[in-house]
Amino acid sequence: MIIFLVLIFGLFYFVMIRPQRKRQREHQTMVQELQKGDKVVTAGGIYGTIDSLSEDSIVIKVESGATLRVARGSVIGRREK
Fold first, then answer.
1. Which fold has domain 2-79?
2. End-to-end distance of the chain based on CA atoms, in angstroms?
3. Burial level of 39, CB count in 10 A (0-12/13-18/19+)?
4. Are 52 and 58 in contact (CB under 8 A)?
5. Chain mean pLDDT for the chain
6. Cβ partners under 8 Å of residue 10, min gap 6
């Protein structure tokens, strides 16, 4: 019975927890490597180009010319330049 519980926990770890941690590390690395001029997408679906960076936020310039200050963590991905 104990072996069965250990196997279930092991399966749960490799199917659920480990992949999530890997995605978190990849996202954190991507956010740390952001540079001025990178084209990005935010969690809110806003597409723009990084105009400036600070420790905890970035300023994104959108197509209309407006600038938006967003948290670094809200950037979900880069687009090709």
1. SH3 type barrels. (2.30.30)
2. 55
3. middle
4. yes
5. 93
6. none
- Per-domain residue ranges for the chain? 2-79
Which H helix or E strand runs over 24? helix 18-32
Q: Is the pLDDT of residue 81 over 90?
A: no
**CA–CA distance, 33 with 19 (Å, rounded to integer):** 21
The tokens for 5 are: 């519980």
The Cα-based distances of 36 to 7, 14, 39 in angstroms read 47, 37, 9
Question: What φ, ψ does residue 3 adopt, rounded to 5°?
Answer: -60, -40
In this structure, what token pair is assigned to residue 52? 């400036």
Cα gap 81→65, rounded to integer Å? 18
Query: Can you tell me the mean pLDDT for 53-72?
Result: 95
- What phi, psi does 42 have (nearest 5°)? -95, 170
